[in-house]
Amino acid sequence: MTAFEFFFGFFSLVMGLALVTVASGLANVLQARKVVPLGWLTPLLALLVLLDICSFWVIGWNNFQDVTISYGTIYLGLGMTLVYFLSAALVFPKDSSEWPSLDDYYDSHKRLVLGGVLFSNAVGVIWRVMTVDQRAFDLTTTALLVLFFAVLIALMLIKNRRVNLVLLLAHLSTDAAQAFVG
After folding, report:
1. pTM, entire model
2. Tens digits of per-residue pLDDT, 83-110?
3. DSSP string, the chain
């Protein structure tokens, strides 16, 4: 087993659990949809998290083939993925009947979820620049990253639900753009 296979297996296990956590939360709220209105915000936040988890896998596969295993590498990987798992666990309520709507839940929890996504992605970008290649970001990639982080921060700060809906759709569009660019 190579160092990359070891690290990627560890990293993938935690990220896979995060993905399953979001999917399970979605299944639970779909079962309760007659009791609690779904709205658009929480399902779009779930999609944002799911797509971002997928991007973590792609970025990890493409950029960490030469990873060196050390306590620092494992701790950094654990920190990034654990924060991401905790964010994923907060996308949907544990008991949706405690909320008048999922949009109310979104308003209450979006900062924690998006803050975890922001933190994990920022650490990942810094790690990539420090360990892979300082020149890894061309102009298009840099512009998409700036847009990615700007929209995350705006989502965390702006309370208006309509603006949040537009920003979530914009963020999902940047994910789609990255799929075609990178």
Report:
1. 0.89
2. 999 999 999 999 888 999 999 999 999 9
3. --HHHHHHHHHHHHHHHHHHHHHHHHHHHHHTTTTS---SHHHHHHHHHHHHHHHHHHHHHHH-TTPPP-HHHHHHHHHHHHHHHHHHHTSS-SSGGGSS-HHHHHHHHHHHHHHHHHHHHHHHHHHHHHHT-TT---HHHHHHHHHHHHHHHHHHH---HHHHHHHHHHHHHHHHHHHHH-
